[in-house]
Amino acid sequence: MTLLILGLILFLGVHSVRIVVPDIRARIIARGGGRGAWMWPYTGVAGAGFVLIILGYALARYETPILYTPLPALRHLALVVMLPVFPLLLAAYLKGRIGQIVSHPMLVATMLWGVAHLMANGTLADLLLFGGFLVWAILNRQSLIRREGGAAVAGKTWRRKDAIALVGGLALYLAFIGGLHALLFGVSPI
Protein backbone atom coordinates (compact mmCIF):
# COMPACT_ATOMS: atom_id res chain seq x y z
CA MET A 1 0.00 0.00 0.00
CA THR A 2 2.95 2.30 0.65
CA LEU A 3 4.05 2.23 -2.99
CA LEU A 4 0.53 3.08 -4.16
CA ILE A 5 0.26 6.01 -1.75
CA LEU A 6 3.73 7.30 -2.65
CA GLY A 7 2.91 6.99 -6.35
CA LEU A 8 -0.35 8.90 -5.93
CA ILE A 9 1.42 11.63 -3.95
CA LEU A 10 4.08 12.03 -6.64
CA PHE A 11 1.81 11.74 -9.69
CA LEU A 12 -1.17 13.73 -8.46
CA GLY A 13 1.08 16.09 -6.53
CA VAL A 14 3.07 17.19 -9.55
CA HIS A 15 -0.15 17.44 -11.56
CA SER A 16 -1.62 19.65 -8.81
CA VAL A 17 1.18 22.21 -8.61
CA ARG A 18 -0.60 24.55 -11.02
CA ILE A 19 -3.80 24.31 -8.96
CA VAL A 20 -1.93 25.81 -6.00
CA VAL A 21 0.54 28.04 -7.90
CA PRO A 22 -1.09 28.72 -11.30
CA ASP A 23 1.79 30.68 -12.83
CA ILE A 24 4.66 28.45 -11.69
CA ARG A 25 5.23 26.93 -15.12
CA ALA A 26 5.57 30.34 -16.76
CA ARG A 27 7.87 31.59 -13.98
CA ILE A 28 10.22 28.60 -14.25
CA ILE A 29 10.38 28.88 -18.03
CA ALA A 30 10.95 32.66 -17.80
CA ARG A 31 13.91 32.20 -15.45
CA GLY A 32 15.89 31.20 -18.49
CA GLY A 33 15.79 27.44 -18.49
CA GLY A 34 13.25 27.25 -21.31
CA ARG A 35 10.47 24.68 -21.53
CA GLY A 36 12.85 21.89 -20.54
CA ALA A 37 13.41 23.48 -17.13
CA TRP A 38 9.75 22.76 -16.42
CA MET A 39 9.09 19.66 -18.50
CA TRP A 40 12.05 17.46 -17.52
CA PRO A 41 11.51 17.53 -13.73
CA TYR A 42 7.72 17.44 -14.20
CA THR A 43 7.92 14.43 -16.50
CA GLY A 44 10.41 12.65 -14.24
CA VAL A 45 8.30 13.02 -11.11
CA ALA A 46 5.07 12.15 -12.95
CA GLY A 47 6.70 9.11 -14.58
CA ALA A 48 8.09 7.83 -11.28
CA GLY A 49 4.69 8.35 -9.66
CA PHE A 50 2.93 6.52 -12.47
CA VAL A 51 5.25 3.50 -12.18
CA LEU A 52 4.76 3.42 -8.40
CA ILE A 53 0.97 3.61 -8.84
CA ILE A 54 1.01 0.62 -11.18
CA LEU A 55 3.29 -1.44 -8.94
CA GLY A 56 1.59 -0.32 -5.74
CA TYR A 57 -1.91 -1.06 -6.96
CA ALA A 58 -0.87 -4.43 -8.35
CA LEU A 59 0.54 -5.38 -4.95
CA ALA A 60 -2.17 -3.79 -2.82
CA ARG A 61 -5.36 -4.76 -4.59
CA TYR A 62 -5.34 -8.35 -3.33
CA GLU A 63 -4.16 -7.59 0.20
CA THR A 64 -6.16 -4.49 1.01
CA PRO A 65 -9.28 -4.56 3.20
CA ILE A 66 -12.70 -4.62 1.56
CA LEU A 67 -14.61 -1.47 2.50
CA TYR A 68 -17.83 -2.32 0.66
CA THR A 69 -19.17 -4.91 -1.73
CA PRO A 70 -20.70 -3.27 -4.80
CA LEU A 71 -24.17 -4.39 -5.80
CA PRO A 72 -24.29 -6.24 -9.13
CA ALA A 73 -26.48 -3.47 -10.54
CA LEU A 74 -23.74 -0.92 -9.80
CA ARG A 75 -21.22 -2.99 -11.73
CA HIS A 76 -23.52 -2.88 -14.75
CA LEU A 77 -24.16 0.83 -14.29
CA ALA A 78 -20.38 1.37 -14.17
CA LEU A 79 -20.20 0.05 -17.74
CA VAL A 80 -22.70 2.73 -18.79
CA VAL A 81 -20.80 5.46 -16.93
CA MET A 82 -17.60 4.39 -18.72
CA LEU A 83 -19.21 4.72 -22.17
CA PRO A 84 -18.28 8.40 -22.76
CA VAL A 85 -14.81 8.12 -21.22
CA PHE A 86 -12.81 7.14 -24.31
CA PRO A 87 -14.59 9.55 -26.68
CA LEU A 88 -13.92 12.36 -24.19
CA LEU A 89 -10.26 11.38 -23.90
CA LEU A 90 -9.87 11.49 -27.67
CA ALA A 91 -11.82 14.75 -27.88
CA ALA A 92 -9.32 16.34 -25.50
CA TYR A 93 -6.61 15.92 -28.13
CA LEU A 94 -8.61 16.24 -31.34
CA LYS A 95 -9.92 19.74 -30.55
CA GLY A 96 -13.38 19.72 -32.08
CA ARG A 97 -16.84 20.78 -30.98
CA ILE A 98 -16.99 18.18 -28.19
CA GLY A 99 -14.06 19.85 -26.46
CA GLN A 100 -15.86 23.17 -26.63
CA ILE A 101 -19.11 21.82 -25.25
CA VAL A 102 -17.47 19.77 -22.49
CA SER A 103 -14.98 22.05 -20.81
CA HIS A 104 -11.76 20.08 -20.25
CA PRO A 105 -12.93 16.71 -21.59
CA MET A 106 -9.93 14.77 -20.24
CA LEU A 107 -10.75 15.83 -16.70
CA VAL A 108 -14.43 14.96 -17.19
CA ALA A 109 -13.33 11.56 -18.54
CA THR A 110 -11.11 11.09 -15.46
CA MET A 111 -14.05 11.92 -13.18
CA LEU A 112 -16.33 9.44 -14.93
CA TRP A 113 -13.56 6.80 -14.88
CA GLY A 114 -13.11 7.31 -11.13
CA VAL A 115 -16.84 7.17 -10.38
CA ALA A 116 -17.36 4.07 -12.53
CA HIS A 117 -14.51 2.20 -10.89
CA LEU A 118 -15.66 3.15 -7.40
CA MET A 119 -19.09 1.78 -8.31
CA ALA A 120 -17.57 -1.56 -9.31
CA ASN A 121 -14.74 -1.95 -6.75
CA GLY A 122 -14.77 -1.62 -3.00
CA THR A 123 -11.30 -2.15 -1.53
CA LEU A 124 -9.16 0.43 0.21
CA ALA A 125 -6.70 0.36 -2.71
CA ASP A 126 -9.58 1.10 -5.10
CA LEU A 127 -10.76 3.99 -2.95
CA LEU A 128 -7.24 5.45 -2.85
CA LEU A 129 -6.58 5.03 -6.58
CA PHE A 130 -9.92 5.86 -8.17
CA GLY A 131 -11.09 8.22 -5.43
CA GLY A 132 -7.76 10.05 -5.52
CA PHE A 133 -7.99 10.61 -9.26
CA LEU A 134 -11.66 11.62 -8.94
CA VAL A 135 -10.97 14.27 -6.30
CA TRP A 136 -7.91 15.53 -8.21
CA ALA A 137 -9.89 15.85 -11.48
CA ILE A 138 -12.70 17.77 -9.78
CA LEU A 139 -10.29 20.20 -8.11
CA ASN A 140 -8.19 20.61 -11.25
CA ARG A 141 -11.21 21.29 -13.45
CA GLN A 142 -12.56 23.87 -11.00
CA SER A 143 -9.15 25.53 -10.89
CA LEU A 144 -8.90 25.66 -14.69
CA ILE A 145 -12.40 27.06 -15.10
CA ARG A 146 -11.66 29.72 -12.47
CA ARG A 147 -8.40 30.69 -14.20
CA GLU A 148 -9.93 30.76 -17.68
CA GLY A 149 -13.22 32.35 -16.74
CA GLY A 150 -16.55 31.20 -18.10
CA ALA A 151 -15.71 31.19 -21.79
CA ALA A 152 -18.79 30.85 -23.96
CA VAL A 153 -19.04 27.96 -26.39
CA ALA A 154 -18.32 29.25 -29.87
CA GLY A 155 -20.67 28.46 -32.73
CA LYS A 156 -18.46 25.84 -34.33
CA THR A 157 -20.14 23.04 -36.19
CA TRP A 158 -19.39 19.39 -35.70
CA ARG A 159 -16.24 18.32 -37.47
CA ARG A 160 -14.50 15.26 -38.71
CA LYS A 161 -12.40 15.32 -35.52
CA ASP A 162 -15.56 14.91 -33.46
CA ALA A 163 -16.59 11.89 -35.53
CA ILE A 164 -13.13 10.39 -35.03
CA ALA A 165 -13.37 11.01 -31.27
CA LEU A 166 -16.81 9.37 -31.09
CA VAL A 167 -16.13 6.39 -33.35
CA GLY A 168 -12.58 5.85 -32.13
CA GLY A 169 -13.61 6.24 -28.49
CA LEU A 170 -16.46 3.78 -28.81
CA ALA A 171 -14.13 1.33 -30.58
CA LEU A 172 -11.68 1.61 -27.68
CA TYR A 173 -14.53 1.09 -25.22
CA LEU A 174 -15.63 -2.06 -27.04
CA ALA A 175 -12.04 -3.30 -27.16
CA PHE A 176 -11.69 -2.81 -23.40
CA ILE A 177 -14.90 -4.58 -22.47
CA GLY A 178 -14.23 -7.21 -25.14
CA GLY A 179 -11.02 -8.40 -23.53
CA LEU A 180 -8.37 -5.68 -23.48
CA HIS A 181 -9.16 -4.72 -19.87
CA ALA A 182 -8.77 -8.34 -18.79
CA LEU A 183 -5.54 -8.67 -20.77
CA LEU A 184 -4.00 -5.50 -19.32
CA PHE A 185 -5.35 -5.59 -15.77
CA GLY A 186 -6.33 -9.20 -15.16
CA VAL A 187 -9.99 -8.37 -14.52
CA SER A 188 -12.89 -8.52 -16.94
CA PRO A 189 -15.31 -5.60 -16.59
CA ILE A 190 -18.21 -7.84 -17.66
Short description:
The chain has 190 residues and is mainly α. The protein has helices spanning 2-20, 24-60, 72-82, 85-94, 97-101, 105-120, 124-148, 160-185. The chain has two domains: 1-60; 66-190, no CATH class.
What characteristics describe this protein?
single chain, 190 residues, mainly alpha, 2 domains, 0% strand, globular
Describe it for me?
There is one protein chain. The protein is about 80% helix and about 0% strand. The radius of gyration is 18 Å and the shape is globular. Helix 1 (about 1-20) runs parallel beside helix 7 and helix 4 runs antiparallel to helix 6 (about 105-120). The model has no long low-confidence stretch (mean pLDDT about 90). It is mainly alpha-helical. It has two domains: about 1-60; about 65-190, no CATH class. The two termini are about 25 Å apart.
Number of strands: 0
Give helix and strand order, one letter per element, not per position: HHHHHHHH
Oligomer: single chain
SSE class: mainly alpha
Domain count? 2
Topology readout:
Blueprint: H1 2-20, H2 24-60, H3 72-82, H4 85-94, H5 97-101, H6 105-120, H7 124-148, H8 160-185
Helix pairs in contact: 1-2, 1-7, 3-6, 4-6, 4-8, 6-7
